[in-house]
Amino acid sequence: MRYQEFVRRVQEHGGIKTREEAERVVDAVFETLSERLSRTETRNLAAQLPDELKEKLFRRLYTDRFVLRDFYNRVSARAGVGYPHAIKLARVVLITVREAISPGEWEDVVSEFPSEYEDLFEKKPDDPVSMVA
Q: Which homologous superfamily is 3-121 in?
């Protein structure tokens, strides 16, 4: 999947009004995801993504083990949206990641996270996302 298509799908899945807002969401989620994935898994995931998304995954030089609430808080701060919207936005981006990569790679990504993250990976957003914080 090409970058433009990835962003368009995030925009559609989330009911996000503008391309710029969708890109801001993608940036926020990918930066947070890159902090949580091991370096090996980051490289494996990046191998299946367009260059623009690879760059976002390699911005962070360190990894950290933080809880799901912290994941959503980081997305919220980076995307400039409220916590409930951050939950939906993170799900929207990860739904699109799942569509863009192989099933085996998706399973590898999910396996990097403890069971409390199941909520992030398994559920689809309940309704379109409004970018109003």
A: Uncharacterized conserved protein DUF2267 (1.10.490.110)
